[in-house]
Amino acid sequence: MTDFDWSRFGPETQAVRAGQHRTAEQEHSDPIFATSSYVFGSAAEAAARFSGKTAGNIYSRFTNPTVRAFEERLAALEGGERCIAMASGMAAIAAVGFGLLKAGDHVVCSRGVFGNTVLLFQNYFGKFGVATDFVGLTDYAAWEAAIRPNTRFLFLETPSNPLTEIADIRRLADLAHGKGCLLVVDNCFCTPALQKPLALGADIVVHSATKYLDGQGRCVGGAVVGPKELLDKEIYPFLRTGGPSMSPFNAWVFLKGLETLGLRMRAHSENAAQLAQWLKEQGWVARVHYPGLPDHPQHHLTKTQQCGGGGIISFEVRGGQEAAWRLIDATRLISITANLGDTKTTITHPASTTHGRLSPEDRAAAGISDGLVRVAVGLESQQDLREDLARGLG
Question: What is the dihedral angle through the alpha carbons of 198, 109, 120, 189, rounded to the nearest 10 degrees?
Fold first, then answer.
């Protein structure tokens, strides 16, 4: 199926078919190439492969057919020219940084990102002479004011983690390009089933494939999607040299996950929207953060930029950490885990888990209170989820 221009097909077809290259065995399902190395027909062929004069497999740290199938499928879904698979979502963000940045460069990052992303920019890129300024996701004046002549890129998640704020991707892309910067968007919460940042002007999209791309909490992986020339020149050399590689087995699992991505994301969004409305009606809940609710500050933008509200809800419980922990501990069905994107609903307390390594000042600046609870809504019965949460709310 190598002659297809997958951009001509719908996302449902891309998710099932793109990236498959059948072998001489004519298998219908995607195979797993469980091999570390490849055999060359001659010493000259090996030399040509290693030098880049001819294309082909060299070593599974950076060339593997199963991984390549996942890369091609995700690139088709995102509308990107190239995808590079990584060992994890954090490895994908690290690869963007190590590939694009050098000592003396500067980054502007949203405060509303995963806690480890903040630490990566502050503690590790900072160690090598890269400065990072953090701004409010929707404070566009702050974004513009923070950009310096040496700013290399702007980085954000939208929706944000865990408050589900929505950034205007096109507006930030125009701002970045007007200042000679790139825009990098973490599309983990929406996936290309609900949002396509590249079509809105972003230059690079990163993913934690661990989340919704897998969809069942089975494997860890990540990906970078963007223009072929940029990724081949700046990101791929880091993968080849640094080795944050995705395993063939994990790539195969993600390929299977992508086949049902659109169906699952619509179901997650519908389930989350109903649960968010129910939570608004509970007296112990002070505030609900969900982009699909009409009173969400960026609800109108959600309707124009996304194809659904997504599966993540966060809400403020009256009574601070004690009440939040009591609610979490009272659940019997919902899984207490910081992972998300699973068919099983999960619940966590961001201030003491995903963002627990941040300073209290940084958490406060990001709007993460001690009473905040995050729920990644799965595919269970709506009534069962309500009854489970009601144990701790009542």
Answer: -50
Contacts of 6 (CB under 8 A, 6+ apart): 14, 17, 18, 72, 76
What is the Cα–Cα distance from 313 to 302, expressed in whole angstroms?
14
Token pair for 383: 């009534």
Q: Which two tokens stand for residue 371?
A: 């009473």
Pull the structure tokens for residue 370: 């001690």
Amino acid at 149: P
What DSSP designation does 102 have? -
Separation in Å, CA 284 to CA 35, 294, 308, 316, 322: 54, 20, 27, 9, 13
Does the pTM surpass 0.90? The reply is yes
User: How is residue 255 written in tokens?
Assistant: 């390929």
Three-state SS for 85? strand
What does the alpha-carbon distance between residue 379 and residue 265 come to, in Å, rounded to a whole number?
Answer: 10
Amino acid at 277: Q
User: What span, in angstroms and rounded, lies between the C-alpha atoms of 204 and 345?
Assistant: 29
What's the pLDDT tens digit per position in 74-114? 999 999 999 999 999 999 999 999 999 999 999 999 998 98
The length of the chain is 394
357-379 b/e with 16+ CB inside 10 Å = b? ebeeebbeebbbbbbbbbbbbbb
**For the chain, which domains are there?**
6-259 (3.40.640.10), 262-393 (3.90.1150.10)
* Distances 287 to 263, 369, 385 between C-alpha atoms, Å: 29, 12, 19
| Average pLDDT over every residue of 271-299 | 96
